[in-house]
């Protein structure tokens, strides 16, 4: 069944969620790639995945192929992962290089994206390529920003300044010292579910004590608070989410530096539309970046951080390993659930579901964010 997003009724989505077709239709996915993933600020990776000068990481998101590089000045740059000659892909996997050479015709690029050389550019002449001819043939740059170690890009180049986009969340988290984040692990996941189901599930606190009963009890989520920060950011807070859980070790990881007493026991998690999922605990942070690949395929990068640099000491190695194992277990449970949900959520009968006022309002907000972007693109 073909669906026109202009005809999706907002009130119906508040009661029943988005129509089943939007989780499987190819035409919807194609529109999303442009209306959602090219227009706003989307996340690609963690900056700590590229620790050294010359580190390169190719990332595909929607219909864009991108390349992240740490430049000679130690800053992160993002470019389209295509050679300026005949658009050949430049990098297939993570690597470290001082000069980037296209495998097709050996055009070479510097770490700032500028063209370094093109062999035999003038044919038989031994004359080196002139600076003038090189000037307009560098890699195509992508507008980017790094916040909380997360690399964001705006492919269209005309979204609001990133500082304005992220300000509501940045202000909410101003008591957390994100400069102290240290990566513990990063894990790649593959899902056969639509990307929106992954985001929707992350913003669903209702399922947590049932699907992840090894980690959370029902009582611990009963004081859940909804957080609506902007047209692009929503989340949830458990004021005692960390403090009401029994300690699993007599030497827990240290919490964020300079953390206020108010936040020592608080857990908060956020969806930054469209694909950035951030969980903030007093002693650890979890970042999930969801990348759509097809209507029924998405990849996820799960990165786990210690909130305090002191947590990286050898004495805390067992605690770090246990934390990583526990959070990856939770995500694997979600992946298995999503792969099954993809089939039932796209059945016609799924349109008769009923969202719950007490638990599903953040999900409703996510649906509205998606619908607003898609309908705006239709004009």
Automatic annotation (TrEMBL):
InterPro entries: Rieske_2Fe-2S (IPR017941), Rieske_2Fe-2S_sf (IPR036922), Ring_hydroxy_dOase_asu_C_dom (IPR015879), Rng_hydr_dOase-A (IPR001663). Residues 41-153 form the Rieske domain. GO terms for molecular function: 2 iron, 2 sulfur cluster binding; dioxygenase activity; iron ion binding. Pfam families: Rieske (PF00355), Ring_hydroxyl_A (PF00848). Keywords: 2Fe-2S, Dioxygenase, Iron, Iron-sulfur, Metal-binding, Oxidoreductase. Its cofactor is Fe cation. This is Aromatic ring-hydroxylating dioxygenase subunit alpha. It comes from Pseudomaricurvus hydrocarbonicus.
């Amino acid at each position: 069944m073909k669906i026109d997003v202009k005809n999706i009724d907002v009130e119906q989505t508040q009661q029943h969620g988005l129509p089943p077709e939007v989780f499987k239709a190819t035409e919807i996915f194609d529109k999303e790639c442009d209306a959602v993933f090219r227009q706003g600020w989307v996340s690609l990776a963690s900056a700590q995945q590229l620790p050294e000068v010359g580190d390169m990481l190719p990332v595909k998101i929607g219909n864009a192929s991108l390349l992240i590089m740490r430049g000679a000045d130690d800053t992160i740059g993002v470019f389209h992962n295509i050679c300026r000659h005949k658009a050949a892909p430049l990098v297939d996997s993570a690597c470290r290089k001082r000069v980037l050479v296209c495998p097709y015709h050996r055009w070479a690029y510097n770490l700032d994206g500028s063209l370094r050389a093109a062999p035999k550019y003038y044919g038989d002449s031994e004359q080196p390529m002139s600076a003038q001819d090189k000037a307009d043939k560098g890699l195509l740059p992508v507008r980017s920003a790094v916040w909380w170690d997360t690399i964001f890009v705006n492919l269209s180049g005309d979204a609001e300044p990133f500082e304005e986009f992220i300000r509501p969340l940045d202000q909410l988290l101003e008591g957390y010292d994100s400069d102290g984040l240290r990566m513990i692990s990063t894990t790649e996941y593959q899902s056969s579910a639509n990307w929106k189901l992954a985001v929707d599930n992350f913003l669903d606190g209702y399922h947590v004590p049932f699907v992840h009963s090894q980690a959370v009890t029902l009582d611990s989520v009963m004081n859940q608070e909804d957080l609506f920060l902007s047209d692009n950011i929503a989340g949830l807070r458990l004021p005692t989410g960390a403090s009401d859980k029994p300690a699993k070790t007599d030497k827990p990881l240290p919490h964020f530096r300079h953390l206020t007493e108010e936040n020592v026991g608080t857990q908060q998690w956020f969806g930054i539309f469209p694909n950035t999922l951030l969980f903030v605990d007093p002693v650890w942070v979890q970042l999930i970046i969801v990348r759509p690949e097809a209507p029924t395929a998405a990849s996820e990068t799960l990165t786990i951080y210690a909130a305090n640099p002191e947590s990286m000491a050898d004495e805390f190695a067992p605690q770090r390993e246990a934390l990583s194992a526990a959070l990856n277990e939770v995500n694997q449970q979600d992946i298995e659930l999503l792969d099954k949900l993809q089939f039932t959520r796209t059945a016609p009968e799924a349109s008769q579901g009923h969202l719950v006022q007490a638990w599903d309002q953040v999900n409703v907000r996510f649906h509205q964010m998606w619908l607003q972007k898609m309908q705006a693109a239709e004009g």
